[in-house]
Write a structure and sequence with these properties.
The chain is mainly α. It contains four helices and no strands. The longest helix is centred in the C-terminal third of the chain and has 39 residues.
């Protein structure tokens, strides 16, 4: 069973690597045909909404949203810590506090990994289009 899992894992990683190479080659050849003036970026200034690039605006929204979620995760950890400190030796409340803290740490790890992935994708998307 483990041998089958390792074979499937290697096959999936190989396919993903091949798709990444092919996708990069397609992006590199298509980047020469994209004219930034044809993307409609200047229309934002005409409507009074600003003239920032849409990708930059989306990146800013993602960063703010993940920052707020990070604050929520830290507050959850603080609630767990407060519950633990005020438990007074009650095993049930200590167990509940441990669950709060564990959930907050897991949430914080998910948020940080989502931020890293989003930052990586947006940075590579911007650099691929602006070549």
């Amino acid at each position: 069973m483990k041998k089958l899992q390792s074979i499937v894992s290697i096959a999936v990683m190989t396919i993903m690597l091949a798709m990444g190479v092919v996708g990069y080659a397609n992006n590199a050849s298509a980047a020469n045909f994209i004219n930034p003036n044809d993307l409609g970026i200047s229309y934002g200034g005409d409507t009074g909404l600003g003239n920032r690039d849409v990708r930059d605006t989306v990146a800013s929204i993602i960063k703010v949203a993940l920052g707020l979620l990070g604050i929520v995760a830290v507050v959850i950890i603080l609630i767990g810590g407060f519950t633990w400190m005020t438990a007074g030796g009650n095993d049930e409340r200590v167990g509940q506090a441990k669950k709060w803290i564990f959930s907050g740490v897991i949430g914080l790890a998910i948020i940080l990994s989502a931020y890293a992935i989003a930052s990586f994708v947006i940075t590579n998307l911007t650099s691929a289009v602006n070549q």
